[in-house]
Write the structure tokens for this entry.
Amino acid sequence: MAVNYAVTGRADDPYPTRANTMSATYGGLAGKAAPTFTNTAPTTFGGGTSGQRFADLQSALGGVGYQRSGVQRQRAMSLDDLARQFADMRRGIPGQLNRRGMLDSGQFQRALGRSYADELRNAGRTELSMQDALNQLAMQQFGAESQFAQSGLNNALSSAERRAQLASQIRETF
């Protein structure tokens, strides 16, 4: 009994199968159309290194995004810790003033009001520090985007200069 290798699709088979033929054809076409570092950006903006510059930009923006989410997590945890701290502190105020016999003296309202004011002040300071961190990240993002744009502009200008120089060397043969 003979084995039909055209059905099995072995690599050393001299008869290509339909599946192998289709795979090779479609794979070749997909490989030409797939994004690479040389065809992710328009060729008129930046030349052959534009794909690498784009990858660098995406990496920088990903890092900024990761740091930004970390700042937001830190903000949420800090504000939650602050709220818990002041809630625990407020729970003890009536007992302290009651032991001294000052629960109805107005000091209770004063201490309670002061605790809310302190909590708001500390929350505002936390917000300010988080906003400073977010502003620093925004500046990093702006720097990465500016570097990407400046690099593309420099490549475009050098390409235009090179083409102008080549055009000046063309002799008129008419």
Observations:
- Residues 37-169 form one domain.
